[in-house]
Amino acid sequence: MNTRQRGLATLEFVLISAVFLTLIFGIIEFSVLLFTWNTLTEATRRGARVAAVCPTSALTVIRNIVVYNSAGGGTSPIVRGLIPEMVQVGYDPLSGPYPDRYARPSVQVWLEGYAYNLHLPLLQKSYSSSFMATAAVESGGLLPSPGGSGSVGCP
Fold this sequence. Notes:
alpha+beta; 3-stranded antiparallel β-sheet; two-stranded antiparallel ribbon; 5 strands; rod-shaped
């Protein structure tokens, strides 16, 4: 073996493994980012669905559904860093493409202030996006009598 090439295999291994591990950790971090994105999109959709059938006074229930996936609340949110105060709910009395003919009340649920922080060593960046869902209001802010015909069953 040539004395000038001693340790060359070790050096090649270190260079290749550094690039390979950076690529692997980048793929893992991107997967977690997509999981978080999908989870927050589904949570706002679920919150809009609950807001569509619950009275307007059920803001705490709606926020708990979005953040903890439970009407009663919980101890750990579905995504790290998400708190109930980030969940906003807005009711629009008339909406639709043709307000004179097809207008229906709607509710929007969105998140304000959530940011995802990357955990890569040389790429410390924060990403934020708007997550919003809209649903047609079915209860008009009122619940039918409990146990009666057509009872909604707000959680």
